[in-house]
Write a structure and sequence with these properties.
Layout lengths: L7 H12 L28 H10 L5 H4 L6 H33 L20 H10 L2 H6 L2 H8 L12 H11 L12 H8 L3 H21 L1 H4 L1 H36 L2 E6 L2 E6 L8 E5 L7 E13 L1 H4 L4 E3 L6 E2 L4 E13 L5 H9 L8 H33 L19 H22 L3 H19 L2 E3 L2 H6 L5 E4 L11 E7 L2 E3 L10 H13 L4 E3 L8 E3 L2 H12 L4 H7 E10 L4 E8 L4 E8 H5 L2 E5 L5 E3 L2 H16 L2 E11 L8 H5 L8 E10 L6 H10 L3 E5 L4 H11 L13 E3 H6 L2 H7 L5 E3 L3 H13 L4 E5 L5 H6 L2 E5 L5 H6 L2 E3 L4 H43 L6 H19 L23 H28 L7 H28 L14 H20 L1 H4 L6 H12 L1 H8 L9 H12 L13
Parallel strand pairs: 9-21, 9-24, 17-20, 21-23, 22-23, 24-25, 25-26
Antiparallel strand pairs: 1-2, 3-7, 4-5, 4-6, 4-7, 8-26, 10-11, 10-20, 12-13, 14-15, 15-16, 16-19, 17-18, 19-20
């Protein structure tokens, strides 16, 4: 018999095929082909071919470092191949065991002969358990006495679980192993050091340094001749070591975050109590309750289950939902519960499971790139091509000038004369020129620019953990900065998820307080308590003595169970009085759940519980407070509907409790028919309608207002009654007034579902609240919003939310209430289920983008100034004022140290005063161009004045030519570095006048600036032999400081200059279109 299509996994596939993902092979989501390999606005569903294209187009000096944190395409393909191999091997191993068992362990009578029992604490060993689990050998299980016999061998009580104290857990881990698998160690520091060596320019510089060292020692002797080559070699090694340390620290942060992602928490039953443990602490013998959406934590057998089905595609590779019952009780670790609920007995953990073997073989992370990373590779490639061209130009000019005798030393002597100059001297001169040209490439190609994204993401992800957000996908962190709308659940996200029953209608009367048992007849009280105790997946633990009663389950279940306890319910006793025949687990589509019970006198009661108006619609009678059965006429129906509406208007969640009797002979007797029996849901008798209060979270209204101020529209999508949704939306500030609470601002899920695609797109921008929505309604809403150009963030907790979480630009799963299926479909997990944490994620997303822009502005200023100064000087004088060692130090300041200082700025409230960052907006804004060009032009003018008129400006006419040149070049170098130090402050606040705001909180920034200044003083004053500098007196230092300081008032004046709203990149594009005679194409206004 085919299994009914209730699996969320199957539905996900179907919905995406029918609804159509707007990503697909077009990551821009606009249906247009991309213009550039670097134009990828979403990497969430980008094809491997597209990812390969931008890698091939990038100008890269050190591929192993540049692509370290991107998706390793080769390793990803290898990973998929390994998964297929392990799956195939698992099937082969199972077949081999079957042949082995058939040949060696089954005597002629066919009886199963288990291996001899081990000597130890347990009457069964790991080998026997593994043999049974791998073969899915039901006959072996029966030989051990079924699940009950197996539990006795494992010293487990099927109802109360294992004892669970430390000695018991230690025994089990020693006998059967821990639920962990061997993981490949992270790369050591030496690996990062080796990768930092792979930079082509640094290799060339090292070769040049060695050649210079050899020639210097040969011509000048070891005492003086080693300085030139040695200083370059030392500078290169310093760059390599600092780069490796920075990269290594980043990798440790990612490693810690990956471990956190894998640490799933779930409930187990130990000593009769339900307790939450880490998946790594599961042991053989544990009894684990499983519900729809949970991950099976280890190999085991099903103890009991209702409509229990498992998606085994993660292990078998086949999208097939497997029913689990007494005939097929074996569960495999890593699979997801697709339907129903049940409990399992753990039989194998860790490496003894097929999942453990699979994870151990593919445990190495293959990385992931982000859209910003790809775009920055494009920027780095463009800037690098310009820098490379300039370096080649400088190399040619300097070589031509040198070999044609136009290059003189500080004393005016020609450095090269054909036929006179020694070969060694000529080679040495050429090497120095080559060194300068290569160093220009090092400075000009911003190799660290794309890696700055990784740095800021690593920093942000670590800090976001403290803000209760666990990032599963790197790209989501930055995409959140572009979010234009957040579709949020109500329960637990906007509200506290702490429900209590505050009103109860029994008959047509509102009993008050709701736990007032005296107003209920014994018969009615008995039926309500029976329904509460049996129709639940929660539990009540009553400790021995006078301990506090512990209630577990979902917040709704806990609230109703607590109400039952106040009515005098003895949970364990009630559950013993009747046996469960069949269960219909609560379903978010039908919004109700039911159970069929067989009583001691062979009566059958079917209890239903769910959304008040939906269950009420199936009722044909009700029991009044005196216990009399009354017919449900139109008048009474209207009274109950008004009661529901009254409670809903008071922001209460309304739940109806109903039942009906049934004949035992009408219940299917065949086990397979019973498993697919649809519980009767007509002719119900209403027992009670309860109102549950779930107060709004503290601060949620402020968080919603902050989003609205930031241009992010908050929409509530809830399964609750429309009136309840309206009341909570008004309380949270999503709806401003009752006047707003009209269609389409406020809409019911089924009404939205019934609209055509065109009509949905017309009204979707206006929707603020959607009530009584199903997961499919949420998916339709997300698709309509994305088609309208929105960047959509969606919260979800249920298994059926997976399609919407997958389809959204950013899927936010709830860490407490969320199922494992929802979490796996999400991009970020909100650990405290709080909407305020969602808003913090928006701030962090914007912070990532802002920090990268700060770093771009700072780095490109250095690039432009250094290139122009060296080019002009090289062409005009045949010499460059900034030598190789100095340029390497500048590169270290602007690359590694600059990224650390600027890419780790914490987010500020100012970020929420802007509108969302458009995903198609240029990385370099007009404000950045203004700031960048003002500072670069200032630096170029001042430093060129010093280069050409430095001797007179610094009053060095009386000094020897050699000394005057050294002082002049030292001042140029010192002033240039100090300009960058002062400009680092400007880069912190590109559009604010107060560049010092919040600086005292950023200790890393202050530390790096302080370190840079100290090192600069040491370099100038004490390392002149290496850097070709000389000591400066206080007056020269003062001149350098004033030159650097002037960048501050200049920045203030620059910020008064207005900039056009149209991005400069648009003008460049129009110019290129005009020059190349291309037709002007209409471009979409919406760049998001």
């Amino acid at each position: 018999m085919s299994y009914p299509n209730r699996s969320p996994h199957r539905r996900l596939k179907n919905d995406l095929e029918s609804g159509g993902s707007s990503n697909g092979d077009d990551p821009n989501g606009d249906g247009h082909s991309f213009l550039s390999p670097f134009d990828i606005t979403s990497t969430k569903n980008a094809s491997i071919e597209r990812l390969r294209r931008w890698r091939q187009a990038a100008l890269v000096l050190n591929a192993s470092r540049r692509f370290r944190y991107t998706l390793d395409l080769k390793r990803e393909e290898e990973k998929q191949r390994r998964i297929r191999t392990v799956r195939a091997h698992a099937q082969a191993i199972r077949a081999a065991y079957l042949f082995k068992a058939a040949g060696a362990q089954e005597p002629e009578d066919g009886a199963f002969k288990p291996p001899p029992p081990p000597s130890g604490d347990f009457a069964i060993g790991q080998e026997q358990l593994a043999l049974m689990s791998r073969d899915h050998n039901v006959s072996a299980l029966q030989q051990y006495g079924g699940v009950k016999g197996l539990s006795d061998l494992l010293k487990t009580n099927l109802e109360k679980g294992i004892q669970g104290d430390e000695p018991d857990l230690l025994k089990r881990k020693n006998a059967f192993g821990a639920n962990t698998y061997p993981r490949k160690k992270g790369r050591s520091f030496w690996m990062f050091l080796w990768e930092a060596w792979q930079d082509l320019t640094l290799i060339i510089l090292m070769i040049a340094a060695v050649a210079s060292l050899a020639l210097g020692i040969k011509t000048e002797g070891i005492k003086e001749g080693w300085y030139d080559g040695g200083s370059i070699a030392f500078a290169v090694m310093l760059v390599i070591v600092v780069t490796a340390i920075s990269d290594y620290k980043q990798s440790l942060q990612f490693q810690n975050l990956n471990e956190e992602k894998q640490n799933i928490h779930l409930e187990v039953i130990r000593a009769g109590r339900r307790i939450e443990v880490s998946i790594f602490d599961i042991v053989v013998g544990d009894v684990v309750p499983l519900n729809i959406g949970d991950q099976v934590p280890a190999d085991g057998v099903l103890i009991s289950g209702h409509s229990f089905a498992v998606d085994e595609s993660s292990m078998t590779g086949e999208s097939k939902i497997a029913e689990k019952d007494s005939k097929n009780p074996f569960l495999m670790a890593g699979c997801k519960v697709a339907d129903g609920s049940g409990t399992m007995l753990v039989t194998s953990v860790g490496i003894n499971t097929e999942w453990g073997l699979l994870m151990a073989s593919i445990s190495e992370d293959t990385g992931e790139e982000t859209p910003l990373q790809v775009r920055l590779n494009g920027v780095a490639t463009f800037v690098g091509m310009v820098g490379l061209s300039v370096a080649v130009f400088v190399l040619i000019v300097l070589l031509v000038r040198y070999f044609t005798g136009h290059t003189t030393d500080t004393n005016g002597k020609v450095q090269f004369t054909a036929g006179t100059t020694k070969v060694g001297d000529a080679v040495d001169g050429a090497i120095k020129i080559l060194t300068v040209a290569v160093t220009i490439v090092v400075v000009a190609v911003p190799e660290g620019l794309p890696l700055a994204v990784t740095l800021t993401l690593a920093y942000s992800m670590r800090k976001m953990m403290a803000d209760k957000a666990l990032v599963r996908r790197l790209s989501a962190c930055e995409t959140m900065g572009s979010a234009t709308t957040i579709c949020s659940d109500k329960t637990g996200t906007l509200t506290k998820n702490q429900m209590t029953v505050v009103e109860a209608y029994v008959g047509v009367e509102n009993i008050g307080p709701p736990e007032n048992k005296s107003e209920l007849s014994p018969m009615l009280s008995s039926l309500i308590i029976e329904g509460i105790a049996q129709n639940t997946n929660g539990s009540v633990y009553t400790p021995e003595g006078n301990g506090v009663v512990e209630v577990s389950g979902s917040p709704t279940e806990k609230a109703i169970l607590n109400w039952g306890l106040k009515l005098g319910m003895n949970f364990e006793a009630i559950r013993r009085e009747s046996s469960v025949i069949h269960v219909f687990p609560f379903n978010s589509e039908k919004k109700r759940g039911g159970v069929a019970l067989k009583l001691s006198d062979d009566q059958v009661h079917i209890h239903w519980k769910g959304a008040a108006e939906i269950v009420l619609a199936s009722c044909t009678s009700y029991v009044d407070a005196t216990g009399q059965l009354e017919a449900m006429d139109d008048n009474k129906m209207m009274i109950f509907k008004k009661a529901i509406e009254k409670m809903a208007t008071g922001s209460l969640r309304c739940v109806s409790i109903a039942y009906r009797s049934y004949r035992m002979e009408d219940v299917p007797s065949d086990e397979e028919q019973l498993a697919h029996w649809a519980l009767p849901e007509d002719n119900l008798v209403l027992l009670a309608i309860v109102g549950l209060k779930d107060p709004c979270r503290h601060g949620v209204k402020d968080a919603v207002q902050l989003c609205q101020k930031a241009g992010v529209k908050v929409r509530m999508v809830t399964g609750d009654n429309l009136q309840t949704a309206k009341a909570i939306a008004l309380e949270c500030g999503i709806l401003v007034s009752d006047e707003d609470a009209t269609e389409p601002n406020l809409i019911e899920g089924r009404a939205f579902r019934a609209l055509s695609d065109e009509r949905r797109e017309e009204i979707v921008d206006k929707i603020s609240v959607m009530g009584r929505s199903s997961p499919n309604d949420k998916l339709l809403l997300v698709q309509a919003l994305r088609k309208k150009g929105h960047v959509v963030a969606v919260t979800g907790d249920g298994t059926n939310d997976a399609p919407a979480l997958h389809e959204a630009d950013i899927g936010l799963a709830m860490g407490i209430a969320g199922t494992e299926v929802a979490k796996e479909s999400s991009d970020i997990i909100i650990l405290d289920d709080n909407f305020a944490s969602v808003v913090k994620v928006v701030r962090w997303g914007r912070s990532v983008y802002a920090n990268i822009q700060k770093f771009i502005q700072f780095q490109l200023t250095v690039n432009v100034a250094a290139l122009i100064i060296n080019v002009v000087a090289a062409v005009s004088t045949g010499d460059v004022p900034l030598n190789a060692v100095q340029l390497l130090w500048v590169n270290l300041i602007m690359d590694t140290l600059g990224a650390l200082a600027l890419a780790t700025e914490p987010p500020t409230d100012h970020l929420m005063d802007r509108s969302p960052v458009g995903r198609r907006e240029p990385l370099i804004t007009n404000i950045m161009w203004r700031n960048l060009l003002i500072q670069a032009v200032y630096q170029v003018i001042v430093l060129l004045l010093l280069n050409f008129g430095g001797k007179s400006l610094l009053h060095l006419e009386r000094d020897s030519s050699d000394h005057a040149n050294k002082v002049k070049n030292t001042v140029i170098f010192n002033a240039f570095v100090l300009c960058q130090v002062f400009n680092e402050f400007n880069a912190r606040k590109p559009d604010e006048f107060n560049i010092f705001k919040g600086i005292t909180k950023n200790y890393l920034f202050m530390g790096i600036v302080g370190l840079t200044i100290v090192l600069q003083v040491i370099i100038v004053e004490f390392l002149g032999k290496f850097t070709k500098t000389t000591r400066l007196d206080w007056s020269k230092w003062l001149i350098c400081v004033i030159i650097g300081f002037m960048s501050w008032p200049l920045a203030v004046v620059g910020k008064l200059i207005p900039v056009p709203k149209t991005p400069l990149s648009n003008y460049f594009r129009r110019c290129s279109d005009f020059i190349l005679c291309r037709p002007q194409t209409s471009r979409s206004v919406n760049h998001r």
